[in-house]
Structure formats: structure tokens, C-alpha cells
Amino acid sequence: MSERFRDRLVTARSFTDEVLVHCPRCSGRAVLAAHASSPCRLVCSECGHTADFAPTVVSWPGNQGRSELCDPFDLGLRLHLQVPCCGEVLWAFNHAHVDFLESYVDASLRERYLPEPPAPPAYRMTMAAKLPAWIKRAKNRDHVLRALARLRAR
Ligand SMILES: [Zn+2]
Questions:
Q1: pLDDT at res. 117
Q2: How far is the CA of 42 from the centre of ligand 1 (A)?
Q3: Is the C or the N end of the chain the one with fewer CB within 10 Å?
Q4: For 34-129, where are the E strands, in sequence order?
Q5: What spacing in Å lies between the alpha carbon of 33 and ligand 1's midpoint?
Q6: How many of the other CB atoms lie within 10 Å of CB of 54?
Q7: What CA–CA distance (Å, rounded) separates 138 from 124?
Q8: Ligand 1 centroid distance, CA of 127 (Å)
Q9: What does the alpha-carbon distance between residue 21 and residue 19 come to, in Å, rounded to a whole number?
Q10: Cα–ligand 1 centroid distance for 113 (angstroms)
Q11: Residue 123's pLDDT band (boundaries 50, 70, 90)?
């Protein structure tokens, strides 16, 4: 059993500085770097392709009309880290996100971090609170951990 998991108000935004996506040119692994106030830059380590995109609002990964989950900036770039799991799709923006999910799922005790004074409303919905129920279900734990190990190996 791992140490108790503390939900430190991690939000989706915490993991979107660098998002692993499929390169639109070679389908290899590319990094989409998004830093506030500068364009998103895509760099593919496999074919050297680079591209800049205008910054857009960070959102949950979308699949508007697409069969696979895409980047959170609605650029239509498929997430590199996604695997089928428990009839759903387990995904992560990057390896730090995989680590976060693993520490969450692996923890035997979970407790919500309640800030004092309370955080502004935009920050109350934490990453852990937003996780779908199937990831949190005890009976799925081993499946989810195996799927996370597969994501980590990518
Ligand atoms: Zn490429």
C-alpha cells in the first residue's frame, strides 16, 4: 500500500505546459509546448517537424467529431498517451500526468485538500475531483494501474 494521497489542488492546467501528441506529419511522438502569453509550439523529435499555433483557451481534451482524444487547445492533434481501459479510454497529457494518476489510483486512502481560506471557485474543481468514476472504482484499480504502466512505457 502506498502512502496516503493528498489532492493538492492539481488542475488540468497543471499538466498542459507540455502535451505529448502525435506528429501530424509522421505520427511520431511530438511535444506541444504551451506557455502563457506565447504561441503553442509543436516540436517532433522524430521527423523534426515544428509548427506554431496561436494560443487558445485551455480546455479538457476534446474529441469533437473525432474518434480519438485530442490536445486541450482544440488544434486537432491526437493525444499520444491514450490506451483503452475498462471499456473507456485512459489518457494523460504527459508523463507527469501519468505519475499523478498513478499516485491517485495507487493510494489506499484519499483525502481532499481543503484550502483555508477557501480557494476561488475556478480552482475548487481539482483534477482528482474531475476524474471519471470508473478510474476511482476499487475493482478497476489493477486494470487502471496496468494501463498507466503501458502509458509510461511509451
Ligand atoms: Zn514527426
A1: 55
A2: 10
A3: N
A4: 40-44, 50-53, 81-85, 88-92, 110-112
A5: 15
A6: 8
A7: 24
A8: 30
A9: 6
A10: 40
A11: very low
Terminal alpha carbon distance of the chain: 26
Return d(Cα 95, Cα 97) in angstroms, integer: 5
Give the model confidence (pLDDT) of 16-43 as tens digits. Answer: 889 999 999 999 999 999 876 577 899 9
Domain limits of the chain? 5-152
Asked if 73 and 56 count as a contact pair (C-beta separation under 8 A), the reply is yes
Cα of 124 from ligand 1 centre, angstroms = 37
Contact predicate 148/90, CB 8 Å: yes
Mean pLDDT along residues 7-16: 65
pTM of the full structure: 0.78
Residue type, 149: A
Report the distance separating Cα 32 and Cα 93, nearest Å: 10
Tell me which long-range contacts 96-99 makes (C-beta under 8 A, separation of at least 24): 96/15, 97/15, 98/148, 98/151, 98/152
Amino acid at 61: P
DSSP structure string for 4-29: PEEE----GGGG-SEEEEE-TTT-SE
